[in-house]
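Hi both,

Apologies for the delay on this - the queue was longer than expected. I finally got the magnesium ion-bound model through. Below you'll find the protein sequence and the ligand SMILES exactly as submitted, and right after that the structure tokens for the full complex including the ligand.
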Amino acid sequence: MSDPTRPQSPKIIAVANQKGGVGKTTTTINLAAALVELGMRVLVVDLDPQGNASTGLGVEPDQRDRTTYDLIMGDVDLAEIIQLCHTEGLYVTPATIDLSSADIEMVANEKRSFLLHDALRQHAIDGYALDYILIDCPPSLSLLTVNAMVAADSVLVPLQSEFFALEGLSQLMLTVREVRQTANPTLRIEGVVLTMYDQRNNLSRQVEQDARDNLQDLVFETVIPRNVRISEAPSYALSVLDYDTNSKGSQAYRALAVELLSKRS
Ligand SMILES: Nc1ncnc2c1ncn2[C@@H]1O[C@H](COP(=O)(O)OP(=O)(O)O)[C@@H](O)[C@H]1O
Ligand SMILES: [Mg+2]
């Protein structure tokens, strides 16, 4: 409790980018694991109907009776939804394809943008003594992603080190601005993290330069390299930190966690 890096109530970070395949899920899982290594208690909310974060964290499809869908709809006991992962201190609310219908069902609800916000602020959450909640968003700017941004303190944006990476970012920033103006005035950009970075590739270096020129301090100093161990880990239902603890990928996600904590004041 005396540790100043420990938030009082869980700090909620939406990991978002409407492009698919840019490293949202990979960053969610491995940043969560790195924060847990540092002694934090972390909940991953899988908000993507594809359920990749759930799979990567070891929740088999037949263990997904209660999911993020139930969390949002709010009629199931939290203890039935939140699952402990293999690692102590790491929890997940798993997702299934059901979530894609939630997106539609929510529209009729007048509190539609606040459903996740309210779910994550119910008293039963306190019992988990969480430090961080990371929300793995779907690859769209749908109502699910808006729910994540309304629920969150900040948005962390993975940016793939590829051509056109910066395109689409303005649309994402526009959505953040809209959420700020309407439902969540204190929403911050936690930062932009370059993923799948290849140091030997001119294009990667160019994307990094463009991102730093345009977004300055918003870009994390830590860059996540393209690393085969990162892509192998989920098929063993492990974070890369547990799969190959000394890999470049593990080191990078540890550095990202340290940088994230150091940015908090
Ligand atoms: N740093 C990395 N090095 C190698 N492969 C990566 C890296 N980050 C992500 N990948 C791979 O790229 C693919 C897309 O990543 P993912 O995190 O699922 O993206 P998103 O959640 O944004 O759709 C996955 O197959 C993942 O294993
Ligand atoms: Mg994903």
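Main takeaway for now: Residues 11-259 form a domain with the Rossmann fold fold (CATH 3.40.50.300).

I'll put the files on the shared drive as well.

H.
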